[in-house]
Design goal:
Layout: H1 11-18, H2 27-34, E1 54-58, H3 65-70, E2 75-79, E3 96-97, E4 109-112, E5 120-123, E6 129-133
Antiparallel strand pairs: 1-2, 2-3, 4-5, 5-6
Length: about 140
């Protein structure tokens, strides 16, 4: 998940986001790993995510799966592949976002999606997909 966009960020926070070990971390090497140019600054990491955003097509949120199934697929949202899956489709345990920088999680509800073996996903209040289903 992305680092915060304001406040204090430690070298440990940055290392954790990058998946680096905590022995001998340096701002310079972590900035290089993230693709930042010199001069190196902790502030470069505000809002940074080492996770690649994966886009998917969806409807707007709905209060029930039946309502979601009636909606048009006219939105582009993003997921972070937290499920560890190998496809570009949204899966259970993925976090879903409205922005490519993965900072604004989707609201809880049901979202109709396209391209997967199911028709909708249910998102909880933390922005995490916890159920999928078929439109009947």
């Amino acid at each position: 998940m992305a680092l915060q966009s304001s406040g204090q960020i430690s070298l440990e926070d940055i290392a954790n986001e990058l998946g680096d070990t905590l022995s001998n971390v340096s701002l310079g090497s972590m900035s290089d790993d993230a693709g930042f140019g010199e001069p190196d600054a902790v502030s470069d990491f505000y809002g940074y995510s080492a996770v690649t955003a994966i886009s998917f097509s969806s409807s707007t949120g709905a209060s029930t799966s039946n309502n979601a199934c009636q909606n048009s697929i006219n939105q582009t949202y993003y997921h972070d592949n937290s499920s560890g899956g190998t496809t570009s489709y949204v899966e259970v345990n993925d976090y879903v976002y409205s922005d490519i920088s993965l900072t604004t999680k989707l609201s809880s509800g049901y979202y109709k999606i396209s391209g997967a073996s199911y028709d909708w996903v249910q998102v909880n209040s933390s922005g995490k997909v916890f159920a999928t289903g078929i439109c009947l």
